[in-house]
Amino acid sequence: MTINEAQDEVIAEFSDLDDWMDRYQLLIDLGNEQAPLDEKYKTDQNLIEGCQSRVWLQADEVDGKLEFQAESDALIVKGIIALLIKVLSGHTPDEILNADLYFIDKIGLHEHLSPTRSNGLLSMVKQMRMYALAFKMSQSTQP
C-alpha cells in the first residue's frame, strides 16, 4: 500500500464520523490497538522534543524500508502517532521524505488539536522525517 493509499484509508475512516468526540474516541482506540513499545526503546534518545506529553519513537530499517514503533503517555497523542505509523511505516526513506501528509488537514486534525498538541504533531512528523533522512544518508555512504 502506498503512502497516499494509506492516507486515503485514514480519511475514509474519519469521514464516517461527524462528531469530534467520536473522532477523539477513534484516535484513542487506534492508540490502544498499538503494540506497547519495548522498555529498552523508552530512552531519552527516542523521546521526541517539542511534545507536551512524552512520546518515544523507534525507527528500524528492514530491507530498505523504515519500520516505526512508538508509545506515548497520553491517549490522544498515542492515537496520533499510531496514525502516523499507519501512514509512514513500511516505506523507503525517499517515500517518507517526499510524502505530502494531506490526511492531517483532510481529517481536521490541525484545527481540532490544542496549539501544544499541534506542535507535538509537527514534532512527530519532523522526527519521522529526520529518521528517514538519517537512514537515507547512511545508505548512500555504504559501498
Summarize the structure.
This protein is mainly alpha-helical and 143 residues long. It is 57% helix and 11% strand.
Topology:
Blueprint lengths: L2 H13 L4 H14 L21 E8 L2 E8 L2 H14 L4 H6 L4 H4 L2 H4 L2 H26 L3
Antiparallel strand pairs: 1-2
Helix pairs in contact: 1-3, 2-3, 3-7
User: What structural class is derived from the secondary structure elements?
Assistant: mainly alpha
The first-level CATH class is given as: Alpha Beta
What's the number of extended β-strand segments? 2
Could you name the CATH topology? Sufe protein. Chain: A
Give the CATH architecture: Alpha-Beta Complex
Overall morphology: globular
Roughly how many Å is the radius of gyration? 15 Å
| Main sheet strand line-up | 1-2
Which regions are unreliable across 5 or more consecutive residues at pLDDT < 50? none
Number of domains: 1
| Percentage of residues in strands | 5-15%
Please count the helical segments.
7
Describe the structure.
The protein has helices at residues 3-15, 20-33, 75-88, 93-98, 103-106, 109-112, 115-140, and strands at residues 55-62, 65-72. It has 143 residues and is mainly α. It has a single domain, classed as Sufe protein. Chain: A (Alpha-Beta Complex). Strands 1-2 form a two-stranded antiparallel sheet. α1 (3-15) crosses α3 (75-88), α2 crosses α3 (75-88) and α3 packs parallel to α7. 32% of the residues are buried. The mean pLDDT is 93.
